[in-house]
């Protein structure tokens, strides 16, 4: 199977046709022209200060509440390292981002998976866990167009989660890289913006709105927490990449980012719609919730379809997928995550048709 023939629903990345390469090239020239000393120097561990200020204004916080990092996964790692100790209870969504699970498991956390419903984390199930005596240090939540399930946490549940965090004294880690990639419905306020009790730490990224290669993410939280993490960051790397961050800053202040977001929204909205239509046509027995934004759609198959057999059968037919079992502590044996971000609309139907062939092959 050649690379040209492969249709990959595996990787959560945008296709090159929706990346503003020309805008990024122009932003790079402006960055070096406007601030050659700042771009080429070490910088500080809090990140490129003009970008830090722009992010603070976007979220309505002070600049000392922002830490700009090399991608949001590093922001996650900094927060986990700062807050979580071996044996600490941590709440995660079920399913959740596979790298989050791996990193927390590696740290020796006691993980508690809470089911995800069509309107996000099951807060009633979480309350029951808390009432049973579990006292988590942290609850990791991806509120918008969740990876991998594509669900969005409702406004009512956002408020309830904030109340639970205040009552049971745990930190909500609002991991929110997909918020701007909305193609249906109304945007909901972040938990960070609703937080009056300092229980939320927020992370996001320019990976989904600019491009993955810039590797620029950030943390927003209480100033004292950010200052403590910044000290650790200084010891780790002196400063993150100033060149990338300065380019992103120019891309943002010019308004190019708004145009980029519109391009990505339009393309991914079409891809999500085509994927849902193709699934209904070729795999009517599959269950899924069509996402309102983001990169991912979660598909559940009948009990007689095991993804341990389905994934290799799909690969034989030139379709790459990710098994649902990668995103949960246990289970997920009948589910797949389909990333539609990198598959152009004209290839999606063919990919689903091949996947349907694979399903038939493993059922017979």
TrEMBL record:
Specify one Pfam family. Aminotran_1_2
According to the lineage, what is the superkingdom?
Bacteria
Q: Tell me the GO BP annotations in alphabetical order.
A: alpha-amino acid metabolic process
Gene3D superfamilies to which the protein is assigned, alphabetical: Aspartate Aminotransferase, domain 1 (3.90.1150.10), Type I PLP-dependent aspartate aminotransferase-like (Major domain) (3.40.640.10)
Aminotransferase class I/classII large domain location is 7-355
Q: Please list the coiled coil stretches.
A: none
Q: Which UniProt keywords apply?
A: Aminotransferase, DNA-binding, Pyridoxal phosphate, Transferase
Any one GO molecular-function label of the UniProt entry: pyridoxal phosphate binding
Do you know which CDD domains this protein is assigned to?
AAT_like
The protein's required cofactor(s) are namely: pyridoxal 5'-phosphate
InterPro entries linked to this entry: Aminotransferase_I/II_large, Class-I_PLP-dep_aminotransf, PyrdxlP-dep_Trfase, PyrdxlP-dep_Trfase_major, PyrdxlP-dep_Trfase_small
**Protein name according to UniProt:** DNA-binding transcriptional MocR family regulator
Lineage, highest ranks first: Bacteria, Bacillati, Actinomycetota, Actinomycetes, Micromonosporales
